[in-house]
Structure formats: structure tokens, C-alpha cells
Amino acid sequence: MNATYNHKVNINKELSSTRLDKVLTRKLEKYSRMQIKMLIKNGNVKLNNQKIFDPSYLVRENDKFEVSIVQSNEIKYTGEDIKLEILYEDKDLLVINKQAGIVTHPAPGNETGTLVQALLHHAENELSDINGNNRPGIVHRLDKNTSGVMVIAKNNFTHINLSDQFKLHTITRKYQAITWGVPANQIIEGYIERHKVNRKKMSLNNQEKGKFSKTKIKLIESFQNASLIECTLDTGRTHQIRLHLTSVDAPIVGDEIYGKNKIGKYGLDKKNFNKFLILKNFPRQALHATHLGFFHPILNKSMEFNAKLPEDMRNLLDLLLKY
Fold it and tell me: Tens of pLDDT along 135-161?
């Protein structure tokens, strides 16, 4: 069972006007400055009982900080020889085209055969360790049945810098999806929070509950009862695209969580019944991350990476054209 330890730090006159991350690194000698920064950014530090997220905050005399650190009994995972499609690699990061069907990191029920084990084998354990033993190198994630471009950090400096870019929404991300129906070109906005009943799902609202989300939808091609669309993310929330498309009555084909109750009407169209059966039997959510753009923290330049649709989605489009 995980244990939480709370460390209290009181600021005296000598420490006044020093950066918060420097002060905590000095006081908590066991942790590196990189680890302290992540604790602050993840909301594990309170100033006078209020969470503070700014590592550069200049502390003041009589400030009272409380640092919460969760000590977990993590399993030390080992690498597995799992094939990776690498789009780019240097000493600081690598960019991959993740295949569908592979879980990003180990979790109960998926302890082996994950992307983490593949990365540990490929990088020979030279990955960032900010997120602990079960998420080395993982800056962001794709759902098990979503394919496409991901960036992996090989060291903690790169990890923190990339994480900041994701939080500031300066990273460019585009996806392609095959959806039911024909959605209009539009921008979808709303607030996403955990579903109150089904904890595996997220829910969308306009009451400012949860985190703000925004997706731009562009129609690429229509197939009467289905479409190929492009989604440009302004934010990156859990299940954002899947939830947004369901909200406009265009759930992603093969999505087992969202929109299953919206597809029955397409089976009533006798003219396109063959297409309905083809779409209904697609074995995974037809969602692929086609584009990722970010600023390389070490090379100090913008980089962009693209991955074409995988074979299963291309085959599905060919069948929709045929029928």
C-alpha cells in the first residue's frame, strides 16, 4: 500500500527571495531539483494551505510550505523485445508511431507487453524517471486502441520541458478518425470531468465543471453513413476526441465506450446496410494520431512528425468506397 509523507518547510529571513524549487531541493536532500519541480507542478506542494504550481515563486519570510510525497512500492519493470516503429531518435528523445492494441504503461491486468516494456528494451533503461518505475519516458499517452505519433523523453530535463509544452498547449496535435454519420466542419468546446457513475468514462458539460477542452473538426471525405475527418486539438484531455465527436452525434467507429447507443439508426438504411455491417464489425476505435509538432528542448528548434493511416483504417476506407 502506498504511504504519503508530509514535509513542512518554514521560510526564515535567510531563505527569503530564493526560488521555491531551490529552497525545497536544499531542504529535501533526497530529491533532485527536477523531481521537486514535478512535485510542485503536480500540485503536491502547498503554500499557507493553498496549492502552488510555480517552481520559480520567490519565497518570503514566514511562508509555510507543506510537501506531500507518495512513497509507492513500485514494481521494477524490465524490457521486452517488442517491435517499435521509430520515426526519430537522438540522445534526448525519440518519436514513435504507436501501433493499435498496445497499452502505454503497465497497470493491473496489463503488467506485461506494454509500450513501456518495449521502450525499456530499446533504450536500455535510458529513459526519464520522473513518473516512477511504471511510466519511464512517458510524457503523454494514447489509448490502447488508438495508434499514431508519440514523443518519449530519455532524460528528466527533456521530460519536464515537453510536459510544460503540453500544459501550455503549444504542441500541435492532429488526428484522423472514421466516424459514424457526416459531422459538419466545426469547433467543439466544453468541460470534461470524470463520469459520476461509470469511472471508466468521462463526461462533457458546459457548466465549467472539470477541465476546458477544445477540438476543431474538419471533414475530409463522406461515405453516406460514415466519414473520414481530421481533428486538431487545442487542448488534450482524457478521451477528448472520442467524447467531443459523440457529443455531435458522430461517434468514432469501433469505440466500445462512447456512442454505442447512437449507431443503431444506420442499420435501418437498407441502401447502405453493407457499409453498416462493415463499420459495425471494425475491431477497434478508428482513431490515429497523424501529426505531432513540438520544440526540441536541447536542439532549440521546432520539429514536426507525421504518420500515415495504419493498414486497418486504410482497408476500412477502401471497403467503404467499394460498397
Answer: 899 999 999 999 999 999 999 999 999
Q: Does residue 233 sit in the same domain as residue 263? A: yes
Residue 219 and residue 185 in contact, taking contact as beta carbons nearer than 8 Å: yes
Question: What confidence score (pLDDT) does residue 2 get?
Answer: 57
Q: What pLDDT score was predicted for residue 131?
A: 76
pLDDT at residue 146, rounded to an integer: 97
In a domain, 149, yes or no: yes
Distance in angstroms (rounded) separating the CA atoms of residues 323 and 288: 23
Those residues of the chain that have pLDDT short of 50 are: 1
Tell me what pLDDT residue 74 has: 60
Which of the following is catalytic: 54, 143, 164, 249? 143
Asked if residue 307 is part of any domain, the answer here is: no
- At 150, the amino acid letter reads M
Tell me which of 110, 134, 168 is where a domain ends: 168
CATH number for the domain that contains residue 67: 3.10.290.10
pTM of the entire predicted model:
0.80
318 is annotated as an active-site residue:
no
Is position 274 within any domain?
Answer: yes
Domain housing 258: 174-289+315-322
User: Cell numbers 504550481 correspond to what residue?
Assistant: 53
Residue labelled with grid coordinates 526564515: 12
Domain with 130 in it: what CATH number? 3.30.2350.10
Query: What's the grid cell of residue 189?
Result: 468546446
Q: Which amino acid is at 220?
A: I
**Secondary structure element (H or E) that encloses residue 69, with its range:** strand 64-71
Residues 112 and 157 in one domain: yes
40's enclosing H/E stretch is: helix 33-41
How many CA atoms, within 13 angstroms, populate the side-chain half-sphere of residue 17?
2
